[in-house]
Amino acid sequence: MNEIRTRSPRRRQATVTIHDVAARAGVSVATVSRVLNGKQLVRPETAVHVLSVARELHFVPNVAARTLSIRRSQTIGIVLPDVHGEFFSEVIRGVDVAARKAGYHILVSGSHSDPGEMMEVLEAMRGRVDGLVVMAPDATLSALGKSRTADLPLVLLNTVDDAHDAITIDNYGGARAMIRHLAQLGHTRIAFIKGPDGNADARERLRGFRHAMRAIPGGEKLELAGDFTERSGYAAALHLCGAADPAAKPADSAAKPADSAAKPAGGVAGATPTGTTPTAIFAANDSMAIGALSALADRGIAVPGEMSVAGFDDIPIAHYVAPPLTTIAVDIAEMGRRAFALLSESLGEHRHPKRQECISTTLVVRKSCAAPHSQVK
Amino acid sequence: MNEIRTRSPRRRQATVTIHDVAARAGVSVATVSRVLNGKQLVRPETAVHVLSVARELHFVPNVAARTLSIRRSQTIGIVLPDVHGEFFSEVIRGVDVAARKAGYHILVSGSHSDPGEMMEVLEAMRGRVDGLVVMAPDATLSALGKSRTADLPLVLLNTVDDAHDAITIDNYGGARAMIRHLAQLGHTRIAFIKGPDGNADARERLRGFRHAMRAIPGGEKLELAGDFTERSGYAAALHLCGAADPAAKPADSAAKPADSAAKPAGGVAGATPTGTTPTAIFAANDSMAIGALSALADRGIAVPGEMSVAGFDDIPIAHYVAPPLTTIAVDIAEMGRRAFALLSESLGEHRHPKRQECISTTLVVRKSCAAPHSQVK
DNA sequence: CCGCAAAATGTAACCGGTTACATACAAGCG
DNA sequence: CGCTTGTATGTAACCGGTTACATTTTGCGG
To answer: B203 CA to chain A: closest CA distance, Å?
Structure first.
């Protein structure tokens, strides 16, 4: 009755278990496990022997069993909204290489536009991942707070929220750098094409723009609405050169007094831009800058001769448009890398002070910006 | 002594198991499992009750336990080489949406240039995934055949190999369509900038080009070396307009006789292109076409006035270069979708006849091709 | 040669589901 | 009324690892 355990004739098609290895090596499963995980004390000769048997039998540990037992899956999840291809792949790449180096796998879900759907995905990842890298709109985020998924280590991308670790882009600094560059070229009247209201990146870029403009003596700023699409950039630029109509601040009429009241130090902040055409356009992202470029081309306005144009992001296309776009480059893969690094610390033990890191940006000077034509005014 | 099981004071922090639900609902774990999986016969009232208890307790099944038990992880792996961002994200997107719809998760690993490394990744996915979508160079592929990972359902991208299911792009048809388009515009002397030798896409595109050229009365073809990089496209175009030097067929001098012997029907296949400059350049991918565009611009040759240029892939940039590039569009996401569809059939049961599907392409006419200038010759 | 601490290894109880088989109970039928 | 049949549910043996604790072996001082 004893020798039955050697093999049940049916079943078991190709799977070698730790028990098989133990039996073949003449030791117990515990010893095999110890050898394989290298942790405990095992006599070196035993270890060598077990290892050779394992290799001989082509033993591969069952991941699910290990996960169940030690309660870690060695996998992290990445959840992204509907971002453009280049961004998507760079984030993944960054996390991927860092994660692989640390022995982690990555479970990916992307292209979510609906916050509800995103929550579902997040829930569905429960139990499959040890941690999460998430880029989510504010709505999803607050829902996440209430969810049970919340107890997983989490790193947020491009969202400020001091309840979590986060990696952000230095949008503020990037915008300031660009304005400084334009100022250095001699521009004082600069138009900014804003991004969508709800977008955190857009907000920060706008903030950087506003702040930097205050530092320009005699600076005059103009803010145009936009939503990150090429079309909206086109429209904004057209609007700008169409006439001297003062549609500068379309929506938030309440914002101005609050703004200028808060910081009257700027001195020139109150200047009415009406009538004076800017000499440069700074778009909150490259797509809009490219749209603006088209509009100017359509109107026969030379860039950078008559009008300078700048963007933000340094998408691949920025290099190819005519003229090549001066913009702010962002190292997206670095963001992914850092996100994993942060996560991997939380993976060890929970409850550490939350940190936010910032990825710095780089000014990329191409051909779309030059000194204003009528420098003398 | 009985009431001890209600709670072990330490341990168990937040995890609700199926046993907890069973106990609370006053039924057995088997019943709970049956209710949750909806399969077996359970009295409707019991089901309702169990369901409500489960919800009340916020029960979430442990994925690892289920995986261990039923031997399926509801996850598929995607392994890609170092492809450009847009391609990467589109493939993932295609697989992702299809997979999610079917209740599958996706484990991703990308940007592998080293075949050995790719094999490691493939091995590491063993036990974590129920199937694989892989895009790999031939080298990796043959290694895969020997590996134990081979017993997983597998769908190959862009590789022909009748030992596996595969999804390919209709490179051959796309190239033919482009040549037909050029012929229709009046071109007969067309240069082709080839892709790298080892690349399957490149081979097929070349084949399509050659075949289509045979159908053009009085057609003269010219083949230039290239490696899919913008730089090589630039070099090829420069070479072309540099002089009338006959560097047309650099490497394979043996190819011509075999080729023309096989199909003497073309009639004009043997025409010597030496000395006659083509009126159109067809590059095996958009990057090279864009490189060619730069070269022509540098040489002051008007496109499409003096020379037509066409590409393949329809990368986003193609739309933005000057002039906008006429090219062949490929629906990458569709490839991902179909790959999952194929895979999902194999997931049910193994051993079905292997199938290869082909994604058709679309001619996108923009501004870079026109009738040849000296139509009269 | 004994005793004991340290080192090496074994035993078996988990981890949390699934499911074959056993059991309980109800209805249908001769 | 006893027996078959069928439905609803329970019991417990898996799945394949990990690891606390038990047990055996080894080494060494006395």
So the answer is: 27
